Amino acid sequence: MSSSQIVFTGKQQVAYEECEMPVPAAGQILVRNHYTLMSTGTENIVFNRLFDEGTHWDNWVKYPFHPGYSAVGEVAALGEGVTDRTIGQRVAFRGNHRSHAAVAAAETVPIPDALSSKEAAWFALAKIAFMGVRVADYHVGDSVLIIGAGPIGQMSVRWAAAAGLEHIIVADPVASRLKLALAGGATAVIDKPVDKCHDDVLAATGGKLPRIVIDSTGNAAVFDAALTLAADFGRVVILGDTGSPASQKLTSDVIRRGLVIVGAHDGHNDATWNNVTIGRLFFSLAARGRFDLGGLATHVFAPSDAVKAYETANTRRGETMGILFEWDKK
After folding, report:
1. Among the four residues 75, 88, 285, 299, which has the most C-beta atoms within 10 Å?
2. What's residue 317's pLDDT?
3. Residues 265, 241: contact at Cβ < 8 Å?
4. Is the pLDDT of residue 179 over 90?
5. What is the 3-state secondary structure (H, E, C) of the chain?
6. Which residues pair with 100 in a beta bridge?
7. With bands split at pLDDT 50, 70 and 90, how would you rate the model's confidence at 1?
8. Mean pLDDT rounded to a whole number for the chain
9. Closest C-alpha to 296, from 180, 168, 161
10. CB atoms within 10 A of CB 210
């Protein structure tokens, strides 16, 4: 049995290669992956090196770099002492784009029968968006503007819908993405750049700016416009992780209108909310139909077509949402 993986060998260089088959240690399981989901925001920043020197991105991205952090597959072997997983069971875990992985059993999340593996692959991006939910601190009947309708923005929409917010507004100039946002629970969408949508936001909420603004884009140029769109004493959540944080500029809105700015990140785990517990919640909601995932998987590639997959992610933004690698294809 052979194993393979996708590797960034340099800036804008990607390779599909054979690698050593992992062997599960005590407490681990061997997973044969069915799908891994590309995180187009993160992986395009890394692939193109769209980050400044000295940032955490610069410290993180060293070659060879192994991209990907959302994997779903079936248990192929059990390490010593593992009793709560079974051969053939489908699980999700935070793993790279590769055919097989040895991972701690406790760090995997069983996938409900009601969900397909393609749907389950969204668990990692849903988890990241949930970190934005935590710091947004919104509640039933609240209002939110979500800037950006990419994968993280789509997950943010669905958490807001599951939480019972009254106004869920999404701004993105790509119309095809807004259709998916509406399917996921958005109450209004705006197909304009964020610096052109102030009046549209007011119209969507009956004349009041939303208390919460979530910037899911990772685009540094969005930040100052986001500050103008939150209500007085509102909260702006920086969920998209830009590669150029020095380009994000404050406006007088922060002091003059008493805004709170708070960052959210995948790494903000604790004993209560982490990869496993949020993954379980996501699967529970999705299995009960409260987290719509229809139509989000727009492209599926064989791993051997990785060059084409990343070219598609870079050049066809308006046509892509979920880009999956199918590891049963070579």
Report:
1. 75
2. 82
3. yes
4. yes
5. CCEEEEEEEECCEEEEEEECCCCCCCCEEEEEEEEEECCHHHHHHHHHCCCCCCCHHHHHCCCCECCCCCEEEEEEEECCCCCCCCCCCEEEECCCCECEEEEEHHHCEECCCCCCHHHHCCHHHHHHHHHHHHHHCCCCCCEEEEECCCHHHHHHHHHHHHHCCCEEEEECCCHHHHHHHHHCCCCEEECCCHHHCHHHHHHHCCCCCCCEEEECCCCHHHHHHHHHCCCCCCEEEECCCCCCHHHCCCCCHHHHCCCEEEECCCCCCCCCCCHHHHHHHHHHHHHCCCCCCCCCEEEEECHHHHHHHHHHHHHCHHHCCEEEEECCCC
6. 32
7. low
8. 96
9. 180
10. 26
Is a pLDDT exceeding 90 seen at residue 318? no
Distance from the first to the final alpha carbon of the chain: 13
- Which one, of 272, 210, 256, lies nearest residue 237 by Cα? 210
- Could you tell me which of 220, 274, 227 has the C-alpha nearest to residue 248? 220
Tallying the residues shown for the chain, one arrives at: 330
How far is Cα 95 from Cα 182, in angstroms, rounded to an integer?
A: 30
Residue 71 confidence (pLDDT) above 80: yes
All structural domains of the chain, each given as residue ranges with its CATH number in brackets, are 3-122+293-326 (3.90.180.10), 125-263 (3.40.50.720)
Label the pairing between strands 71-78 and 28-37.
antiparallel
CB-based burial label for 173 (10 Å; 0-12, 13-18, 19+): middle
Token pair 């077509």 is at which residue?
305
**Res 330 pLDDT > 90:** no
Cα separations in angstroms, 75 against 66, 78, 97, 119, 186: 22, 8, 17, 18, 36
Tell me the three-class secondary structure of 123-142, residue by residue.
Answer: HHHHHHHHHHHHHHCCCCCC
CA-to-CA distance for 300 and 110, rounded, in angstroms? 23
- CA–CA separation, 226 vs 216, rounded Å? 11
Looking at residue 3, its amino acid is S
Does position 292 have pLDDT exceeding 70, yes or no?
A: yes
Predicted confidence (pLDDT) at residue 44 exceeds the cutoff of 80: yes
Q: Tokens standing for 152? A: 């993280």
- How far apart CA 164 and CA 141 sit, in angstroms, is 6
